[in-house]
Design brief:
heterodimer; A: alpha/beta; 2 domains; 4-stranded antiparallel beta sheet; 36% helix; 25% strand; B: 214 residues; mainly alpha; MetI-like fold
Chain lengths: 250, 214
């Protein structure tokens, strides 16, 4: 059974159809890379999965449990909140809480959600921060960190709630080129720990290396889907090839 | 009449000044937040009603509002409903709450949407997002405009004398009846000291919140 099944997701903003029937599924421990030019609907798709947007049509099933369906009446705030816990989201702009230090950023949500005793939550946060290489920065404030460090805190913050699926929305797009490596390295290490991930990215080389599955999106539809070899190296699709040639990859 | 006698008399007036100031602040600060939520409500009719209310309260002189609160209930019901002091406090609280509400609204709307979304995707409730993430950032952003309003409030308390509350200015004015003018000018010292303390206090708060940017 796939950990995630997405069926026929449609999303409009007024007259504009942003997603026109998105289907895909993902198995436990798989990494899905979503590529495509801006405006293709990649970010909107992630936002739908995280219930920041509500699709007009379609269904989302996690671990066999349908958490969104267009047949369901309107979802309450509380239902949306609980559904969100299946997913984690790492934003392009980090969105750390500026008034809290690194450790507090990571422990705030688990403490509010009473995920354990304060000691357990702190210990868990310190372990995660160690894995993302920030043990020596736990009492720093976001404004004292580099972009790459901030994004690694954001990843730790999302991991602290142990979501079923961790989503990344262009995690390196707001970073200076020399800082992207440290963030991509963390994501690679997560893959080795069997973390199920969806990464919206422009880093084609990274997608090639880490992804089990690649989706190329354009104009709100999935144009091509397959392994990195199929989509990124040997695409038969004209649109995919045109898009990739912009990166000098074909 | 000597200097000490006048000073004592003005200090008695200052008691009212301080009381009006403190009560207004304590009640108008939370009420302003409630009004700001009303004016930002997604339920449009409520937002329009609240915005009209804010327009009226900000559009009518505070002095007139004090008079209205004291006299109008009396005209309507035949007997005074609120005491002089309660009328002043009610008028001040409502007036200042409206001004505060606009400052809150500006502060709340200036917080990037990403802060709300970050809290939401971490499974926090709307309440938790507001009180644990947004509010503290709003406080930092509105500290400067708030200090302006609070300082204005100190001096607006003098309007209470329009319905014969003997605050500092009125206390000094009473001496003018005996041909003594200098106590009136002397009141400036009391206001300057009051505002001086507030300025230091706000400076202290600003420094306290200086540890982070954003």
């Amino acid at each position: 059974m796939p950990i995630l099944e997405v069926k026929n997701i449609n999303k409009n903003f007024g007259e504009l159809e942003v997603l026109k029937g998105i289907d895909f599924s993902l198995n436990q421990g798989e990494v899905l890379a979503i590529i495509g030019s801006s405006g293709s609907g990649k970010t909107t798709l992630l936002r739908c999965l995280n219930f920041l947007e509500t699709p007009e049509k379609g269904s989302i099933t996690v671990n066999g449990k349908t958490i969104f369906s267009d047949e369901h009446k309107e979802y309450t705030d509380e239902e949306k909140r609980l559904n969100r816990l299946h997913f984690g989201l790492v934003f392009q702009q980090f969105n750390l809480f500026p008034q809290y230090n690194v450790l507090e950023n990571v422990t705030l949500a688990p403490k509010l959600l009473k995920k354990g005793t304060d000691e357990e939550i702190n210990q868990n946060a310190l372990d995660i921060l160690k894995h993302v290489g920030l043990s020596d920065r736990v009492d720093y404030y976001p404004c004292q960190l580099s972009g790459g460090q901030q994004q690694r805190v954001a990843i730790a913050r999302a991991l602290a709630l142990s979501p079923d699926i961790l989503c990344f929305d262009e995690p390196t797009s707001a970073l200076d080129p020399e800082l992207t490596g440290e963030v991509l390295k963390v994501i690679k290490e997560l893959k080795n720990k069997d973390t199920t991930m969806i990464v919206v990215t422009h880093e084609i080389e990274f997608a090639k290396e880490v992804a089990d599955k690649v989706i190329f999106m354009a104009d709100g539809v999935i144009v091509e889907e397959g392994t990195p070899e199929e989509v990124l190296l040997n695409s038969k699709n004209e649109r995919t090839r045109t898009f990739l040639s912009g990166f000098g990859n074909i | 009449m000597g200097f000490w006698e006048v000073t004592l008399s003005l200090l008695e007036g200052l008691e009212y000044t301080c009381l009006i100031f403190a009560l207004t602040l304590v009640l108008a600060l939370p009420l302003g937040l409630v009004i700001s939520f009303g004016s930002m409500s997604k339920f449009k009719p409520l937002a329009y009603v609240v915005k009209t209310f804010v327009w009226i309260i900000r559009g009518v002189p505070l002095m007139l509002q004090v008079i209205i609160f004291f006299y109008v209930p009396g005209f309507l019901f035949g007997t005074p409903v609120l005491s002089r002091f309660a009328s002043v406090v009610a008028a001040f609280v409502i007036n200042y709450a409206c001004y505060f509400s606009e400052i809150y609204r500006g502060g709340i709307e200036s917080i990037p949407r990403g802060q709300y979304e970050a809290g939401q995707v971490l499974g926090m409730t709307k309440k938790q997002v507001f009180f644990k993430i947004i509010l503290m950032q709003v406080v930092k952003r509105i500290l400067a405009p708030m200090s302006n309003e609070v300082i204005t409030l100190v001096k607006d308390t003098a309007l209470a004398r329009v319905i014969m509350i003997v605050e500092v200015i009125q206390a000094a004015q009473n001496f003018a009846g005996y041909g003594l003018m200098w106590p009136l000018f002397y009141t400036a010292v009391f206001y300057l000291a009051f505002v001086g303390i507030l300025t230091l206090l706000f400076g202290f708060f600003e420094k306290k919140l200086d540890y982070y940017k954003g």
